[in-house]
Design a protein that fits this description.
Elements: H1 6-25, H2 29-45, H3 52-71, H4 82-114, H5 129-144, H6 153-161, H7 163-166, H8 174-177, H9 191-225, H10 231-262, H11 280-286, H12 289-305, H13 312-330, H14 334-355, H15 362-381, H16 385-395, E1 401-403, E2 418-420, H17 431-445, H18 450-455, H19 461-481
Helix pairs in contact: 1-2, 2-6, 3-4, 3-5, 3-6, 4-5, 9-10, 9-19, 10-15, 10-16, 10-17, 12-13, 13-14, 14-15, 15-16
Amino acid sequence: MLFNSFEYILLFLPITLLVYFVLLRQHLTVAAKLWLFLASLFFYSWWNVKYTPLILGSILFNYTIGGMLENNGAAGNRFFPKRWIFVFGIAANVILLCYFKYMDFFIANVNVLGGIRLPLLHIVLPLGISFFTITQIAFLVDAYEGLVEERNLLNYALFVTFFPHLLAGPILHHSEMMPQFDRLRSKVLNWKNLHLGLVLFFIGLLKKVVLADQFALWANTGFDSAQSLNFFEAWLASLSYTFQLYFDFSGYSDMAVGVGWMFNIRLPVNFNSPYKATSIIDFWKRWHITLTNFVTIYLYTPLLRSFSRITFTASMIAIFSAMLISGFWHGSGWTYVVWGGMHGAALVVNHVWRKKKLKMSPILGWMLTIGFINISFVFFRAKNWEASLKILKGMATINGVVLPHLFSRFALLQGHKISFGPWLNGIQGNYVTLSYLLLALFIVAVGKNSVQIAENFKPTQRNLAILIVMINVACWTILSNNRVSEFLYFQF
């Protein structure tokens, strides 16, 4: 079920909220949590019910392994050493993820390297498997290190399946989430939280349906349909995807956090104006924050500890390796590995720059950061090498520059690989495309983000009026488009 569908907005969400707080009002706390868990399963099963046993099996398996890790003490016993249990649990999760997400990728590469023709399995990727798998891997790591304090199956199952975050994050941590389901203040309907949640939800919905879906039209045409692109078409296609991805994913995260507030559950912030970053280190502190935290704690730190001596060089190798793995986590393709490697290399360069105490103006830093991010997202978006090279060739002016007819009167522009005519036909764009890009740039570089709105929020009549306007605009846009599009991170 999609956040931007009328089934969700008009039926599922209000019914789930109403029944949950009615049960809590009757002091039926366990029943209320069970209802929320079953509602989350229904939400997940809406896409494809045959994958419901998969997520239930994953929950029961990891809860059981977590209990064995806690109950076996520091060393375990001679039949089931604690380390063996831990390795088995992690391996099972990784194998599950690899089977569904990477099996066809592995087969295709074996076919190329071995000159054979093994048939692809064409496995359909279960929604949310990347997110609920790494969430539970983190749980097992903490259980192994003795950091898990609560052992309640219903709370654990609800922590994993809580529908706002289930399909595309934010990535949750058990220590932050599980206690919230039992806090007294979470059991009473809070009108301020409800109002704030609605505001954040519809801010996210507007990001998705007004901005992201519009940028998708130009990005999809440029990356998937056009045979070749000129300079402006290539840059506008890449920038369209850069903004599409941001407004799509941050929109989803805003909606998830907003729904959490409605249930008095505080989900972690996932975005903090990442396109205001003045360095790549700053970018990763702002972009997909919960993934950055996971990579730092559960990838970078163990990789660094594997070195005999912790040095600056070892730290840089660990950063680069962690980003490579992060890139591969996003998708089964070499383009994702290249994207991860680019960001790993950029982080290393940024850390070396800081270590040498070199200076750079914030404006130049911002321009270089946004430019690098935009180029790296070409590999993130492209379905194959050919598609990425098509965009990059256009960006490098290899296919020439085309300007609108009105510029042909300027003698200075004659020649130099410049021609005049339809200049954005390759992405089916026009001056509206430029208007959207300028609007998006203003929003991400100057406007307040959802974190700032939440911090200063007050349920006033003015804010209520703004909320009503947002609801009307969002619903009108969905009706006008006559379609409901999926969120980009569903495929990752």
